[in-house]
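pipeline stage [seq->struct] | target=Olfactory receptor | organism=Pantherophis guttatus | residues=316
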Amino acid sequence: MNLTNCTRITEFILVGLPRVWGMESVMYASIFLLYILSLMGNGLIIMIVIKDHHLQKPMYFFLTNLSFKDIGHTTTFIPKMLVNYLSENNSICFFCCIIQLCFYFLFGVTEFFIIFLISLDRYVAICYPFRYATIMTSGVCLKLAIGAWFGGLSSVLYQQVLTANLPFCTSNVINHFYCDAGPVLKIAGGDTRLIEALGFLVAVVVVVSSLVFTLISYFFIVCTILRMPSTSRQQKAFSTCASHLVVVSLLYGSVFFVYLRPTIKNSSFSMTKYVSILYTFITPVLNPFIYTIRNNEVKDSVRRMIGRKVTGLRNI
């Protein structure tokens, strides 16, 4: 095919979610509900951490970053998907797709760095409790968070610039419910091997290395917990670690299935759409509950906030 005479596509058509006959309205209503729950849960965490000085600690600082990431990640594609469903028009403009692709992977890659920072914070808190305050200072935490976001941006920006300059001539139908790298590159013309190689390299370096360091952190955490003389402290520490590991299992399991593939052109993305639902819809909703449902400090903060609201209403 002569790509020099290519008429550049100005918009893409998104295939959308896997269809269940007669259940489309229920599926999209469920997605809308999950999106609202994600906004409320993650927004609540951000609000109470900012307002309650008792929660202005490294763990909650990193958790706030994770909540901001979840809000940004879901907002990148869910509102557009819902608007397309209501208008019965599954199109997205070319540059909107590239922007969506860029922000989606910015938030996605940054999540792995934040998950690692949370595990690092727990490692220092449990393994070096007496040095925790001097190691995890506010300045160090801020630098780590900035590094996580910068690492996410630098990991994906060059790939998206290359993707934006690819010719799209033969097809504009993306076999997904948002602009994902694999389905977009599958319909692209020209040589995509460099972009695929960069994407695979980022997936291996970022995903695998963050998983390895996270598991190493929890290995030392478990070893330290087992040496604790107090059974109650052991149970509390294990409870915290278990909730974090649930997030790690959901996130890494689904991402390994979807993104750790060396070639894209010959891949079918029908099955990956089902797996994508797990980490695009479910995980952002579960994160606030998994990290806080057994956390007494967060519960106490919510009670204090409600108590202040009730007192304020009584004084009116």
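stage status: PASS
auto-comment: The first strand starts at residue 11 and ends at 14. Strands lie at 11-14, 91-93, 173-174.
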